[in-house]
Design brief:
By secondary structure, this protein is α/β, with parallel strands linked by helices. It has a single domain, classed as UDP-N-acetylmuramoyl-L-alanine:D-glutamate ligase. The protein has helices at 39-49, 65-72, 111-124, 145-155, 166-173, 186-193, 197-202, 204-217, 256-269, 274-288, and strands at residues 2-5, 10-17, 29-37, 54-59, 77-80, 87-93, 99-103, 130-134, 159-163, 181-182, 222-225, 231-234, 240-245, 307-312. Strands 5-4-1-8-9-10 form a six-stranded parallel sheet, with helices on both faces. Helix 1 crosses helix 9 (256-269) and helix 9 (256-269) runs antiparallel to helix 10. Residues 8-296 form the Carbohydrate kinase PfkB domain. Belongs to the carbohydrate kinase PfkB family.
């Protein structure tokens, strides 16, 4: 079982344009698609599509259309009731794959809702292999909210993966108890390390060094996604691997990082070693960017043979 938590879920609306996005002009949409979203929800959708047992924990009204959409996709969920509708995020996609996102902040959550979300996650995680804490936090939620939940889950023997950004990510990375897996992208890794984003995207060994610093702080492993440049995995013993898909023409990058994390978790459930976990992670991410809207890839969409994985040796320390 893999449990996901999405404290700030969304309905993801994707608008595809016939030409490039031009500010201040009236543009016609070619297609418009809507579906359930939020990072943890996306992970659960990908896992369910692969036949893995999963449950998505999220705040949502019982009559919210998002829950109906999850039922249609056969995604099990545990919804904590709230008085407001799920926020709507809009993604505008140009023909060349350029993606512009307009994300609502989301509604604040009352203390009793936050307590109920924690209780739901701990309840669903009983006997689970992984708990995935993903995405932004709603306005007013303390930046260190994930930190206490990580400690509680690990104390119960459940491995924890975290994919967030900004102050919540900094709080997680500097806590006394770190997760078993951190999944930053290049921008988030730059926030944690002070390194240049362009440097990280172009230098896999630099990414590995930065990830090893997080391992030294107590993280179990780091999966750093670098967009079209691939991904780097550093395991708990410091072994590092770089994975990259072959030529891929992106249609839409929404949810690619969530798909990548899903591929990693599925490979872990299957008992794969680190190189093969990375291979499947990159294959899932590459498949996701070739799907329209916010669709999550299924195993039949994957091309793992097109993914190259190489080991990265530690760079010698300058004397």
């Amino acid at each position: 079982m893999i449990v996901t938590l999405t404290a700030n879920p969304s309905v993801d609306r994707t608008i595809e344009l016939a030409g490039e996005l031009r500010r201040g002009e009236v543009l016609r949409a070619v297609t418009v698609r809507s579906g359930p979203g939020g990072k943890g929800v996306n992970v659960a959708r990908a896992l369910a599509g692969a036949g893995a047992p999963t449950v998505a924990v999220l705040p949502a009204r019982g009559d919210d259309g998002m829950l109906a959409a999850l039922r249609e996709q056969a995604v099990a969920f545990h919804a904590v009731d709230v008085p407001h509708p799920v926020r709507v995020n809009v993604t505008v996609v140009e023909p060349d794959g350029t993606t512009t996102k307009l994300n609502e902040a989301g509604a604040p959550l009352a203390d009793d809702v936050l307590d109920a979300l924690v209780a739901a996650v701990l309840d669903e995680a009983a006997g689970a292999r992984w708990a995935v804490l993903s995405g932004s936090l709603p306005p007013g939620v303390p930046d260190d909210w994930y930190v206490g939940l990580i400690a509680a889950l690990r104390a119960r023997g459940c491995a924890v993966a975290v994919d967030t950004s900004g102050e919540p990510l900094k709080a997680v990375a500097t806590a006394a108890v770190l997760p078993d897996l951190l999944k930053p992208n290049a921008e988030e890794l730059a926030e944690l390390t002070g390194l240049d984003v362009a440097k990280l995207e172009s230098d896999a060994e630099c990414v590995a060094d930065a990830a090893r610093a997080l391992i030294a702080r107590g993280a179990g492993a780091v999966l750093a996604t670098l967009g079209r440049h691939g991904a780097v995995l550093v395991d708990g013993d410091g072994a590092a691997y770089f994975g990259q898909a072959g030529a891929v023409v992106p249609i839409n990058t929404v949810g690619a990082g969530d798909a990548t994390l899903s591929g990693y978790l599925l490979a872990d459930l299957a008992g794969a070693g680190p190189a093969d976990r990375l291979r499947q992670a990159v294959a899932f991410g590459a498949a996701a960017v070739q799907l329209a809207g916010s669709a999550m890839p299924r195993p039949g969409d994957l091309r793992p043979d097109g993914v190259s994985v190489v080991a990265l040796a530690p760079r010698p320390v300058a004397s």
